[in-house]
Amino acid sequence: MKYNMKKLVIAISVAAFLSACCNEEKVPVYRQADRPVCDRVEDLLDRMTFEEKVLQLNQYIIGLNTNVNNIGEEIKDVPGGIGSVIYFSDNVELRNELQRKAMEETRLGIPVLFGFDVIHGFRTVYPIPLAQGCSWNPELVTELCSVAAREARLSGTDWTFAPMIDVSRDGRWGRVAECFGEDPYANSVMGVASVNGYQGDDLYNTDKVAACLKHFVGYGMSQGGRDYTATDISMQSMWDTYLPPYKACIEAGAETVMSAFNDINGVPATANHLFLTEILKEKWGHKGFVVSDWNAVEQLIPQGYAADRKEAALKAFTAGVEMDMKDNCYREYFEELLNEGKITERQVDEAVARILSLKFRLGLFEKPYTEPLPESERILTADAYAAAERLAEESMVLLKNDGILPLGNPGRIAVIGPMAKDKFNIVGSWRCHGNAKDAQSIYEGLEAEFGSPALNYAPGCDFDGTDRSGFALAKAAALKSDVIVLCLGEKSAWSGENASRSTLALPSIQEELAAELASTGKPMVLVLSNGRPLELNRLAPMADAVLEAWQPGMKGGSPVAGILSGRVNPSGKLCITFPWSTGQVPIFYNSRQSSRPDQGQYQEIPSGPMYEFGHGLSYSEFVYSDLKADSEDITKGRDFKVQVSVTNSSDRDGYETVLWYVTDPFCSVTRPVKELRHFEKKFIKAGATEIFTFDVNPEKDLAYVDSEGNPLLESGEYRISVNEQTLKFNLK
Ligand code: BGC
């Protein structure tokens, strides 16, 4: 019996071994989840025909495109072997239907990658990136991006075309709303925070999405704020200003990059070998892939860089664009280009490998389908709303306060203006699947805060136009109130792609309404919701306080009301300069020094900004003192610490953000007047003091980059400043 048992065990083991071997033969390597991704990619590539490979390099669209710039027919029929689609739907059935076609009706069953623009939330929309930049709270940005990733992935999207980290110094450009402001370091930190939130530690999780850095590179330098224009950017500015956020996000592991629409110094970004291959892939070692922007391959023709679609395909591909978004140029011409010897199969293999590798790491081969979940488990959950509200609170910037705020118990409030009851525009541009019905208006927030009997509402006027017929009612509401809350701003469609404006001023009808109300002599709080810095030199003097609420997404009403009542202590600081007048644009804090710093000013307007970068008021008083370094002796290759004490001398607890700037006053390449190199936000209890620290690594924090992209650190004087205080060092 004992002997028999042993024989049986051996027999079973041999059978198991044989069956494992046979299975191994039957299950191709690329289908084995436990094999390294590189082996799976190699195995799959070996099995693919040229045509199958080329399909992987194309992205089509599916669903109804709601982007007004790219509007089109609803598309349902897409070949199963396609590499990727832009997924305009949040209906998982549509995804699963196409995925089933890819998995079951194609020879190799390669899953499709579903991408979409999840810019500031999927369904729970939170503040626009420009507002996020003003929160100086990267942890919170990570939290919200991870909410967006979860909602997106559970709704069938694997890949977001975000973050946009195009430094922009021109508020006329509609897309300024999508970036984190005018500073390269702020865009780097917030970009990395977003990538971390979208991708997490492991993309294989079913609640994470791949990120896409866009638009590579220099798109934010659009001439005169007009979209899609050519850009002239010196290599020094590229290294100093436009490239750093991309480098930081690549180092943080961003999976993909989108090539930009702009021409860079004579070579369109989408066919620019220097940036797409030499810098991104060879110098920085990016292992992911580049997707072109919408129609950007074909647009090489109007840009004057390719004579036809075939040449456009050749130039974009050989420059380093692996995936052709929507144009179908790659699919149409690669066979011919191969036969003519203009591209090689090896080049195609390398490009396909990058795309397949992401699909494996996303777990799409094992989990190609999206499980249909009830809405309540997928979107608009209570924790998502709560996080969106917190970010909105922290991103709003109190620009002016003559002492009227917080209102405390204000008596009757006249709530006036086109933005007061608006639930559509306040959500912001690029709202993904955000729906106005889920949003909260400023009025609703005020109602919940102060009670509806305290409010007298009148719209006053529309966002634009010339109709003053509502002025009388608005004035009457003001006259029977103790304080006016005037809610002005921009339509959401005035921001975003192809939404440039020649002026940063609000339409004159809104300024006229403000003047009419100011004539009542009642105290007035101006609340603004917009997607760009505004020209406020006429409006701000009419108001006793000005709160910049930006486009806060779904939860804007409560944060505005909380700041007005005093329940919330404002803590946002500007990540972009508000000029005194549009004529000053571009105006930004980190420009290079002029040869005559005291001259060259405008003759008829102030030359400085109306509200500078970093400006933002609080209800607390913060006193900075004791700025010091831990060493007098500063040398290359040795880190040192700089600290400042910040005391909350008021009786209100509050958040303070310390912005640390570096100045290199004399250098072989002239440097900006000052450059942000570190920031930190802390909660400081009333009466308490907190120490803020900047751990300085000279090679990282003091060095600059030459026009070849090489870091250089010169000996000599450096200055580190916070607030009004400065420390001088001599670096040896
Ligand atoms: C925009 C991109 C966007 C793409 C796909 C383009 O028009 O420039 O930012 O990701 O469309 O929607």
Any key phrases for this structure?
Rossmann fold; 25 strands; single chain; binds beta-D-glucopyranose; alpha/beta; 5-stranded parallel beta sheet; disordered N terminus; 732 residues
Q: What's the overall average pLDDT, rounded?
A: 95
Percent in strands? 15-25%
- Count of DSSP-assigned helices: 20
Distance between the termini: 85 Å
Structural class comes to alpha/beta
Which CATH-level-2 architecture of one domain?
A: 3-Layer(aba) Sandwich
Low-confidence stretches: 1-22
Q: Summarize the main sheet.
A: 6 strands, mixed
CATH superfamily of one domain: Glycoside hydrolase family 3 C-terminal domain
- Give the spatial strand order of the biggest sheet: 11-16-15-14-12-13
CATH C-level class of one domain: Alpha Beta
Residues in helix, %? 25-40%
Please sum up the structure shown.
30% of the residues lie in helices and 17% in strands. The chain is an alpha/beta fold and 732 residues long.
